[in-house]
Amino acid sequence: MKASMFNIIDYDEDRNLLLFNGLRGIESICKIKRENSDPVLHWLDNDFSSSMDYHAIFGELTKRGYFVDDCVNEIEARNFLYMKRMMSPYLVLVVHTTKDCNFRCKYCALEFQKDVLSDETKEGIVNYIAKNISNYCGVRINWFGGEPLLNIAAIEEVSDKVIALCRKAKKPYSSNVTTNGYLLTPANIDKLIKSRVTEITVTVDGIKKTHNEYRVLAGNRLTFDTIINNLLYIKNHVNTRTMKILIRSNLTCEMTMPHYLKEYYDFYNSTFGDDHRFHLFRRTVY
User: Fold this and answer.
1) Residue 214: what are its φ and ψ, rounded to 5°?
2) What angle do CA 257, 259, 263 make, to 5 degrees?
3) Mean pLDDT value across the chain
4) Which CA distances in Å does 120 have to 74, 124, 251?
5) For residues 91 and 132, is the Cβ–Cβ distance under 8 A?
6) Which of 251, 247, 214 is nearest to 228 (CA)?
7) What are phi and psi of 25, to 5 degrees?
C-alpha cells in the first residue's frame, strides 16, 4: 500500500486531524481525533511500521481513497475521471452562493466570510451556460456554501435566467442544494421548488442529543428541532413527488455502537421511513 498523492492534511482548533482526498472529493472528508492522529500521520508519510492497532481507522481511510495499492497509477485515474466528466452529456456546475454560514459546527475548520456571489459572477455563469448549452443534453447546478440559503436570492436570480435559457434551447434543467437545513422554511422551500431544485442534502448528525452537541448556531443555540420540523413540513405539506431529500449523518465511532444505531435508525424510520423521497446516508468519522 501507499499513501495517495491527492491527500490534503489540516488541523482544527483542537488539533484534531482533518483529511481530504482531492481525487475522491467531498465524500472523502473526515476528522481524526488528536489522540489517534500520530499513527495516521505516519501512514500518510508512507511509514507503515507504526502501530497497526488502529486497523479499523486504516480500513476506513483506505475505503475513502487515502491509501491505494502500490500498482495503482493515480495520474491515470485522475485523467480518466477528468475525461469522464468532460464527456458527460450534462453541463454540471458547482456554485457557492456565499462563504458565510449561520452554524458554528464544532468540527468545522472553515473561516467564514461575508462574501456572496457577485453580480459579475452571476452574469458570467449565465453567459457561460448560454454559450455552451448547445453542446450538452441538459444543465444541472449544485448549490453550495457556506450555507447557500443565506443567499437564496442568488439561487432564484440565476435559476430564473438558466431555466429560460434551457426552455428556449429545449434542454432539461435541474439543481440540488446542500444545506444545514435550518433555513428550510416554508417560504424558502417554495422558492427552491420554483428554482427547479429537485434534490436537497441536509446534514443531521445522529439523534437529537448528539446532533445538538456538534451542530450549533453561531451563539451556541441548538438546531435539531428546527431542522427536523422543516423536514416534516416537506413531508407533510410539499406534494411534489420529484423532490429527493438526502439526510446525511456524520457519526463518531461511539455513535456506531449497536444501542445507538438502533435508536438512530428507529427515529428516522418512524419519522421519514414512510416517504420514499427521504433517504438516509451515514458516514463514520474518527
Assistant:
1) -105, -35
2) 115
3) 91
4) 36, 6, 40
5) yes
6) 247
7) 85, -155
At 86 the pLDDT is 65
- Map out the domains of the chain as residue ranges: 2-76, 88-285
Grid coordinates representing 260 are: 445507538
Could you tell me the three cell numbers for 154? 442568488
Torsion of CA 223, 225, 229, 231, to 10 degrees: 60
**Residue 10, C-alpha cell as written in the block:** 489540516
Q: Yes or no: is domain 88-285 CATH 2.60.120.10?
A: no
Nearest Cα neighbor of 194 from 138, 152, 148 is 152
| d(C-alpha 81, C-alpha 75), whole Å | 10
* Reported pTM: 0.75
For cell 419519522, the residue is: 271
173 vs 140: CA distance, rounded Å: 6
The three three-digit cell numbers of residue 269, written as one number = 424510520
Q: What is the pLDDT of residues 113-140, one digit of tens each?
A: 888 999 999 999 999 999 999 999 999 9
112 has a pLDDT exceeding 90: no
Percentage of residues in the chain with pLDDT exceeding 90? 66
